[in-house]
Specification:
The protein is of the alpha+beta class. It is about 35% helix and about 35% strand. The chain has helices at about 1-20, 40-45, 55-60, 145-155, 155-175; strands at about 25-35, 65-70, 75-80, 90-100, 100-110, 115-125, 125-135. Strand 6 (about 115-125) and strand 7 (about 125-135) form a beta hairpin. The chain is elongated. The relative contact order is 0.21.
Length: about 180
């Protein structure tokens, strides 16, 4: 009886591990907020990584994080180092810009993976709809034995990153409307 239970547990764990390589690993997170400001004004705040400290939710989580920003426009990079695990370490590079419509960045979190983020500005009758999205493959850049765990972690990304995006958009709204 005990051997059957142990065998069943081992089989379940093994199947869950293998399934982590098979189930979809693509994740999309998106939040939007209407901001009562023209796209050109908001674009100037989001198209320069040097201005992200003023509204980024992660800058407020760890004001002591080390930030190194270099370049400008397409190719501008931000490298950060933080002792706070919610902020961590990584780099972000602007990979595409179209004034005043969007800013596209690539994020590299080392062994924790990579992602692409997009800030899209859509003019509306009473302001600008700002949509902030993140797309990632939860297995990309992750060591092979950690890929199944990372894939399962993808099921929590919307609730985790989504709340940070909501806070960042709220901060951006406050800044742009003041």
């Amino acid at each position: 009886m005990v051997l059957k239970v142990i065998g069943g547990l081992v089989t379940t764990v093994l199947l869950a591990f293998v399934a982590g390589f098979i189930i979809p690993s693509q994740v999309h997170v998106e939040r939007s907020l209407l901001i009562n400001a023209p796209p050109t004004e908001i674009y100037s705040m989001v198209s320069d990584l040097g201005q992200w400290d003023a509204w980024s939710p992660w800058a407020k989580m760890d004001p002591d994080a080390e930030m190194i920003i270099s370049g400008q426009g397409v190719g501008q990079t931000m490298e950060w180092h933080s002792e706070d695990p919610q902020v961590g370490n990584g780099t972000q590079e602007i990979i595409a810009l179209e004034s005043p419509n969007y800013v596209n960045t690539h994020l590299d979190f080392g062994d924790q993976g990579m992602a692409d983020a997009l800030l899209k500005l859509t003019p509306q009758e009473n302001g600008t709809l700002v949509s902030w999205s993140l797309d990632t493959d939860m297995r990309a850049g992750v060591p092979p034995l950690m890929q199944p765990i990372s894939t399962y972690f993808g099921f929590m990304m919307d609730s985790m990153i989504g709340k940070d995006y909501e806070q960042g958009l709220s901060n951006l709204k406050t800044l742009a409307e003041s």
